[in-house]
Design a protein that fits this description.
Two copies of one chain form a homodimer.
Chain A (H helix, E strand, L loop, with lengths): L21 H21 L5 H12 L5 H8 L3 H13 L3 E6 L2 E9 L1 H16 L8 H15 L1
Antiparallel strand pairs in A: 1-2
Helix pairs in contact in A: 2-5
Chain A binds a DNA duplex (23 and 23 nucleotides) through helix 4 and strand 2.
Chain lengths: ~150, ~150
DNA sequence: TATTGTTATACTCTATAACTATA
DNA sequence: TATAGTTATAGAGTATAACAATA
């Protein structure tokens, strides 16, 4: 029980203007969708970014750091330390590209590959919240990609 | 010119799986939409969160900190320091609620009100990126709100 | 006892500058 | 001279615990 017998109920919050803004809606939607995925990945001692890197490296042979960083919006210095950590955890390896010795080709270790396969299906199972039909889910993703692809 | 005459073009990145995930799409869309708004607000020495607070307080008389924090996903300690800063900048004031002296009612100062009105129209003008039709824009917002409202 | 808000602090994330090595 | 990546570090954002005042 909240309040007492003579109290007015809290008026609903008016966020009409904010709700008309694309950026606000994208962020609030992300903040709603992300926590369950975070909790799931935490069981495997993975952060969302790390899972993203696993996916990108698993599905792109010979990918280098520049392309990883561009794709997932992580700057070179921050990607370097992120990959350091994943490498220490035995998830991936870096080797010099013989065709251009400045760049490093990133590849998953067998453990990294195994972890990706395990977590991938779990993450996929969290897709499509109850509040969206299958059609709405697909439509939403299609529209979001028009923004950033 | 990139590469040399006999080099293969970089194969396009395969992010098929990631692009099927709602959370990934929301985040990437946000990361694309946010920077222009950030730059605009920076001219007024405002951060996006601060603008959000301005909007919420301007449109909700008698709002207290608990409801602000719940609505915009900011924890009580972090909201306290955020409001401290905005108060120091002369944008808002906090007064005890006479009906419940635990809570503080937040209200804009005339300067805060003026700043909100100025920035509000500028922010609104950044809405609807060229890649979306008016219908798509409205449809996208409608679907996002099904996720978090 | 529970709730609102504050303080202090730790932790994480992100951004910037300077550097090495290759091209 | 430009590019890929690294190191070090600063700054911003987020999370947690302990507390005071009020209900």
């Amino acid at each position: 029980m909240t309040g007492h017998s003579t109290s007015l109920a809290s008026p609903p919050i008016d966020q009409t203007f904010l709700l008309s803004l694309l950026g606000y809606n994208c962020l609030q939607a992300y903040l709603k969708v992300a926590p369950p995925i975070k909790r799931l990945l935490a069981k495997y001692k993975l952060k969302p970014v790390e899972f993203t890197v696993l996916a990108l490296v698993a599905e792109n042979l010979q990918i280098n750091q520049k392309r990883i960083g561009e794709t997932i919006n992580v700057s070179p210095p921050n990607l370097a330390t992120l990959l350091d950590r994943m490498q220490e955890n035995g998830l991936l390896e870096r080797q010099r590209n013989p065709r251009d010795k400045r760049s490093h080709i990133v590849a998953l270790t067998p453990q990294g590959q195994a972890l990706y396969e395990k977590t991938r299906s779990s993450v996929a199972n969290l897709e499509r919240p109850a509040s969206l039909s299958a059609d709405e889910h697909d439509q939403l993703i299609h529209l979001l990609q028009k923004l950033f692809l």
